Every structure is written in structure tokens, then in C-alpha cells.
Amino acid sequence: MSSNEPDVWFRFVRAHRTVIREIERRLAEAGLPPYAWYDALWGLESGPEGTRRMHELADVLAIERYNLTRLVDRLEKDGLVMRSRSDGDGRAAFASITDAGRVLRKKMWQIYESTVDELFLSHIEPEQRRAFADALERTAGLAMDAGVRVRGRRKG
Amino acid sequence: MSSNEPDVWFRFVRAHRTVIREIERRLAEAGLPPYAWYDALWGLESGPEGTRRMHELADVLAIERYNLTRLVDRLEKDGLVMRSRSDGDGRAAFASITDAGRVLRKKMWQIYESTVDELFLSHIEPEQRRAFADALERTAGLAMDAGVRVRGRRKG
DNA sequence: TCAATGTAGTTGCAATTGCAACGATATGCC
DNA sequence: GGCATATCGTTGCAATTGCAACTACATTGA
Predict the structure, then answer these.
(1) B78 touching A, CB under 8 A?
(2) Which segments constitute the HTH marR-type domain (chains A, B) (predicted)?
(3) A80-to-A46, A71, B13, B15, B112 alpha-carbon distances in Å
């Protein structure tokens, strides 16, 4: 069954699961919120004024919008994020990271970064990181072209 | 914030999500079961006699045991898998793929393989696949050593 | 022998996710 | 303008997942 080709993919999936699982474990052990919160907070903090439109944040994180809605619900309930609405486009909704959100993100970052370094980055030869990163970017980008946004009739 | 180092990881996560999402989309479109079923069926079919112990299969797939229990429940209900028990160790339970399971796996494989090829493999230069695969294997392996199995008191 | 501890698999329940559909706007076209 | 169509964000409900506890069996060591 294609002796070694799809093996890269299988290993990819396994590596993803094991690293994520370990990050979750260490965060929980430290009494911190789950992995998904970090990504969302960073997605906002890296945006202009710590703010992004909902659908844009969903795209950045590559998660579904209805899931983002409820993730932001949880973050908002904990005071880590604030919602607001646009004057221009009546449909638009924004989420912004709060000061408390920034503090928490930094705290999570310590565990997050060290775990990724230890379990993931350290196994990739430095001179391969660029090639690796490029390939992954092409992958994600093309995957989105191929289907993820087709729902929105971007092509077809 | 570490300008480009963890970027590999972010891209890794995004690539994973987008490819998985697209696989799920195409499987559903073809009226086939979700991605997880494929992996489980292949995990069994690739084992001796198409059979594995439950906890072994969970390790191969890098998923939690309680999730495997219920995944196998679903597969069994559809006649794709059969459970059996060991004579020797009274705790042991096995799962085996059935003929129907093999047929379904092959059907899913067509969509699965072409999607992975198109969205993932084709973006990795052939001469980098080995390095890529090796790095991923180290990653997954070490992650397991580091924590995943610690629950079972393998060290510490 | 038998208590203490470890392992395998499962289950109840709560949290999260996926799907389909909705209400509210916005845009294109006549 | 006004209708058809598209987008945005959300919600109800069903399916899946995560956590903690439990049953059953195995192993260890006094």
C-alpha cells in the first residue's frame, strides 16, 4: 500500500497529536486553560490594536466560525477578550484582547514555547526549518484554496 | 516574540487543520465515514491477522483509550470490526477488521490518498521527504517518552 | 496466601465540536 | 427602489471528546 509515501503524512498526524496532547497536559498541570485559548489570544494580540474581525480570526486559526463564536464566548466570560460591533458594516463583529488576556497569554507562552521547543523544534535540523516552514505554508495555503473557502464561493 | 522559530509550529498546526478539514469534507461529500474511521481500520489491517490489542491500537493511533473504546463501538455496530477476548490475559481485548471493514477502507483510501497527495505531499520536495519523515518520527517518539505514557508510570 | 499495587478496558457525565438552519445585514442586478 | 443572492455571526441539537471513576484481572512481595 504505497510503501513509504503516505508515511510522511501518518507521522505528521501522529506527531501533531502527541505534541498537542503533551502541551495540554502541561498546561492543565500548571492550572492553565487549554491550548485553544492560547492560539486565540495570540491571534488577537498579533492583530492591529489586539483586535480582529471574527471571521478573520477564524481564518487565521483555521477553525470553523461557529466554533470561534463559542470559544470567544468562553474567553469573554473570563474577561480575556471583549466584543464590539462595527459602525460601517452592520454584520461585522470584532474581538479584542484585554489586559488580562495579555497577561494570561504570556503566562501560557512559557509552557507552550518550552514544550514546542523540546518536543518539536529540537528535532528539526536548523538548516531544514526554512524548507519545512515553506512546505507547510504552501500546504495550508493551497488547502484553503482547494476547499476550505469554497463554501464562500471563491471559485468553482 | 521569537520572530520565526515557533512559526514552523504554527504553520504545522494550520497545515494539519486545513488538510484534515478538507479530507473530512471530501469523505462526507462521497457519503463515506469520517477520517478517524480510516485510521482505525488501517491500524487494524496493518496488524497481524488484521488484529490488535485495544491499548496497542490506541498507541499506534496516538489517541486516548477511552476514545478508542467508543470508536470501536461505532465500527463494530457497522460490522467493520469484531471484538474478541484473550484466553491468557483476562484483561486483554482485541479488535479485528472484518471483510466489510477491508472493503470500506479501500474505498476511503481512494479519497484519502488523493487528498493527501494533492494538498500535502506534493508540496514537499521529494529529496526532503526523508528528512521530514525522520524529524516527525523523532518528534512523535520523544513526545511519547516525555509524557504521554507517564500516566502508566514508565518513568519518574 | 493474600494484601497492595499496577494494568486494561469501559462507562457516566460534562465540555467541546460539527452540522444545519436562522436572523440580520450587504451587495448585485433589473 | 426592490427583489434575489451572499455574507456574517450566532444558535439548537446531535455527535464526539476529555476527565475521573469504576470493574476486572494480573503481578508483586511479605
Answers:
(1) no
(2) 1-141
(3) 15, 11, 23, 27, 39
